[in-house]
Amino acid sequence: MSDHPTQLDPPGPRITPQTLRWTQALGLGPLFVRRSVLEQQGMPQSPAAAASHPLAVSVAAPMQDAPAAHAITAAAQPRSATQPPPAVFSRSNTERVSAIARMGWDELQATTQACRACKLGGSRHQAVFGSGSSQARWMIVGEAPGAEEDRQGEPFVGAAGQLLDAMLHAIGLDRRADDPQRAVYIANVLKCRPPGNRNPEPEEVAQCTPLLQRQIALLQPGLILALGRFAAQSLLGSNAPISQLRGRVHQFVGIPVIVSYHPAYLLRNPADKARVCRDLSFARNTVSRAAQD
Q: Residue 92 belongs to what domain range?
């Protein structure tokens, strides 16, 4: 799980009309921009915003207006894997990791549902395997299920899921879409909810990561969007903060990986909304470039 980043137009401070539109689509509240910056970049200032605040451009409705999440389950068979994920665990886990690396989709899903490899298997309501089109070019990797995900058995169905749907819609993607170019497959590093939504423990990540790696190997997505610190660490083997991992194309077994903030973090830290917009734009441009090669 080495990290070999490629620098591709890292996001800068420029606020573009597209950024403003996407911020509005994300339902993240007003974006404050100096009027001089708008004038320099040839962007009109909102009349309503100008009246209420001399330096503000109001571009969004309240977050609760974001579309509700709709969980779906993949029906089509995944593409064949071209290579198994790397085994990166201790010798005591070698046999288990090797067995997982040979599993097909149905066996992998059944193994996940029956898994008791760590203590989370005893506290969960159900495992959350993943959802979406197995033919999707995009794969979203989050961190762990929350309470609502544990009840429903689907990833990203709570408040963070509503925001994720808005993020996807802003770049023309939809977890319900059948078109592989617009569809996404969504999964988490952890398949079971940590009690109290606490941070994952190293042993829990170690037991769940082979399952995620096999999902990726079977799906063979064109791009992985890693949301949150634990997702980035699991895929890239790096302890670097997200702020240092953003804006670059990383690789996981030959698949491009873009790192951004988790929607739950964004709900608590809306000041980072513009950075997420740039990450989404960067990810979409990366997919477009790959399609042209």
A: 65-292
